[in-house]
Amino acid sequence: MSKLRFIAILLSLGLAVQFGVCANGASTAAAAQAAPAQQSWQKEFDDVCSKTQDAMTFSQQELTALIQRCDALAGRTQKLDDTQKKVYQGRLRMCRGLYAYVLESKKNEKK
Amino acid sequence: MNKKMFFVLALILTVSVSSLSQTGSKKKRPLPYEFGQVVINNYSDKADMDPVVFQHWIHRSMFTCRVCHVDVGLGMKAGATGIKAIDNERGYYCGACHNGKMVVNGKTVFRACSSKASFEDQKRCDRCHSLNKKVASDFDFFKFSAPLPKERFGNGIDWEKSEELGFISPSKYLDPASTMNKSLALQKDFSLSPKVEGMPDIIFSHKKHTIWNGCELCHPDIFMGVKKGNAKYTMVDISEGKSCGACHVSVAFPLTDCQRCHSKPVQP
After folding, report:
1. Measured between beta carbons, which residues in chain A are less than 8 angstroms from residue B220?
2. What fold, for B182-268?
3. What local confidence, expressed as pLDDT, does residue A24 receive?
């Protein structure tokens, strides 16, 4: 009886360890996957919003494309943590706002 | 005689009370080291902490407006950002610099907030959470401002000339918050005619403003009009913090310094 109990405990311990390793592995894999996702998001943000200084030199088509990229990025910010969401949604709003503002003023110039 | 004196005194009292009731109490002009001071109290009270007192003068000597208000993402109005201790701890907002790692002028910038603050950390907390406290600072306003070119109002410092003469060199970039911005294709300066006859025209320098602010800090949030000449600006609106008043009431040279903007001589 005690032998059976010992085997049962050993078995459950083994299973628990195995599950733990798997879970840990899964979370590491998820983190490893999340890191490039974060990097690619960041890269896109840096690329789109580093052009604000040149906004006046862009054509209407270029500005429209930049606005579309901002909108696409806005969806991706939903997955960020609270702090990052607050920071980057605010920055993205300013960045998009400027492109839309310049686009509008260019359209007005042509009228 | 006594009756006469009583009447005179009563008259003086009545006149002064009525004039006071018309004008209200005069707003105290901030002292040079207080100008640009911002009190932030979104969550401090709730956390049983004193509100944060932020000094613009020391920060603006090190960074352009754009770095903090665009790249770091700090709002233009006190409390608008809703900064939490955890945000700072994660390295955002104040924590973008105040991380206990960044070195400025050979000194490590103190860490802003930490969730596991010990009793010894209290002094560090007090450096920002300092309303109505006398807190030792690394920077003394009078020592700092002594060699700088003077101005009559605001901080009593001509910030523009200070940079021009190399006394200060505000950084345009903060790693990793800033995105790489190319040099700006400068927009031309333009003049605006005031409504009051005989008042000099306003010369707006795009160059001065874009170097420190970038474009998106002002457009479209502060200046939303897209057609030149369409937007009307009044001194009342400006003094209430709209348009130019977003900066030129509380941080940049104040409205009392008329000729800094109304700078084009009137043509005879």
Report:
1. 97-98, 100-101
2. Cytochrome C3 (3.90.10)
3. 47
